[in-house]
Amino acid sequence: MPNHILHKAATRGHANHGWLNSYQTFSFSSYYNPERIQFGALRVLNDDIVAGGKGFGIHPHENMEIISIPLEGALEHQDNLGNTQVTKAGEIQVMSTGSGVFHSEYNYNKDKDAKFLQIWLYPRELNVTPRYVQTVLNTAQQHNQLQQIISPDPEDAGSWIHQDAWFHLGTFDKDQSFDYTARKAGNGIYVFIISGSVNTNGQLLEQRDGLGITGAATINITSLEDNSQILLMDVPMEINL
């Protein structure tokens, strides 16, 4: 039987620092819940709002795959690898922090908020060479279908990471229904609702709800309203580092 782990939006951790308003699905910083440490390789899923001109100063990371998905506005990235980039809605950025990287992320605009999803995954191997990649998405490929945005294969669609994980984005009209089959045996599927509402394997999910599913090779998702936007993450449940 499939196992469902439901994370309702209102039950997430929350920290409002003035310049940063952050909602955390899994334990992060001052938010600690022993029942919400991770979902397999998925360690962090933060829903962040950054005030105009503000952001995260230079700080280090290592041995983590970090994916940032802007939802509104734009982020300015700088790192010690020599990258200076602006990422906006319709694009994604990936950092393989590996043996160590220093970076900063600021709201590029001074007069409006930036909203983005900050996601961390444990890697498949430690101390890889750090890298930064920014990808422009063809969002037309997300209408009533899932667009692959992350995979383990550099030759595959979207960006690649050092983990056997696949991420997809899609925006669906009301009553659109589809099946999704995990790309690797033993992987779990985590469905996060960016907007709208869906029925996932019989479970109602509304805006910013998340549902982790294990023990099911294939799941079904039906959109319950127009413009239901879904982030689907297909991730290993075992971490062997």
Automatic annotation (TrEMBL):
Q: Which Pfam families match?
A: Pirin, Pirin_C_2
Q: Which cofactor does it need?
A: Fe cation
Listed transmembrane segments: none
Tree of life domain: Bacteria
Cofactor: how and how many bound: Binds 1 Fe cation per subunit.
Q: What is a single molecular function from GO for this protein?
A: metal ion binding
**InterPro entries reported for this sequence:** Pirin, Pirin_N_dom, Quercetinase_C, RmlC-like_jellyroll, RmlC_Cupin_sf
Q: Where's the Quercetin 2,3-dioxygenase C-terminal cupin domain? A: 149-235
What's this protein's family per the entry?
Belongs to the pirin family.
The protein in question is named Pirin family protein
